[in-house]
Design goal:
This protein is mainly α and 236 residues long. 78% of the residues lie in helices and 5% in strands. Bound molecules: zinc ion (ZN).
Length: 236
């Protein structure tokens, strides 16, 4: 059994590295996707702000058209008032209409100014996002280039490790031990074995019962930690 344990330890040395390389290969695209989503969100916000600004500009144009129509009407009413000085009632009616129109023009202009102020705020926000986005996109491009290199390195490392592992798997390990080992490797993030120091498992730091220590030192069977199920070996 000591030979089996030694063989498993040899396998573990490679497998923990394989696990790390695989985790790295999985993590990199995930990180890229989450970074990209963040950048996309900000670009989308800029597009949204631009659309809002466009709508407001259309509204302002409509308000301006309305005001200039009313201004024309004022000029007409004022000239009609000038030519009807003889008719007091008509004159008063024209003057009243002109006042009302001017008030309405004032209200339209005010509304337009309100929209202009809003546009200013939106454009400021959009410019601020665009400015920081520029830097973020540069950082992202660097990240992507690094990621490419890291992925290639991790991929090459992984292939090399898998090749090493293939050469080692010739070592005689009983199938049931291989099965326990493989299950633990997947469940325990690449660490199927744990050293026992004194009575403490060095993976989960649980104290194992004394009889397990005895069984382990007898070396006639695989002993698993009751806390984390890892296959135990003597640290010394
Ligand atoms: Zn344990």
């Amino acid at each position: 059994m000591q030979a089996v344990l030694a063989a498993l330890l040899g396998l573990q040395a490679i497998d923990s590295q394989i696990f790390r390389a695989q985790a790295e290969l999985k993590r990199l695209p995930q990180e890229r996707a989450s970074r990209k989503a963040e950048l996309d969100k900000r670009a989308l916000r800029i597009a949204e702000l631009k659309r809002e600004v466009m709508l407001l500009r259309t509204k302002i144009k409509e308000l301006e058209d309305g005001a200039s129509e009313k201004r024309q009407r004022v000029r007409k009413v004022e000239s009609e008032a000038a030519s009807s000085r003889q008719d007091m009632a008509l004159l008063v009616a024209f003057q009243h209409e002109a006042r009302t129109l001017k008030k309405e023009i004032g209200a339209l202009e005010e509304e337009g100014l309100g929209h202009l102020e809003k546009i200013e705020g939106l454009e400021k926000e959009s410019a601020a996002i665009a400015a920081s986005l520029e830097g973020e996109l540069r950082i992202f491009a660097e990240f992507e280039a690094n990621m490419q290199r890291e992925s290639e390195a991790a991929g090459a490392r992984l292939n090399q490790l898998l090749e090493e592992r293939k050469q080692r798997s010739g070592t005689a390990i009983p199938p049931d031990a291989v099965a326990i080992y493989a299950k633990l490797l997947a469940a325990r993030e690449g660490q199927a074995l744990a050293p026992l120091e004194g009575r403490a498992c060095q993976a989960c730091f649980m104290d194992v019962p004394p009889n397990l220590v005895v069984r382990l030192s007898r070396g006639s069977e695989l002993v698993q930690c009751p806390g984390c199920s890892r296959i135990l070996y003597n640290a010394s």
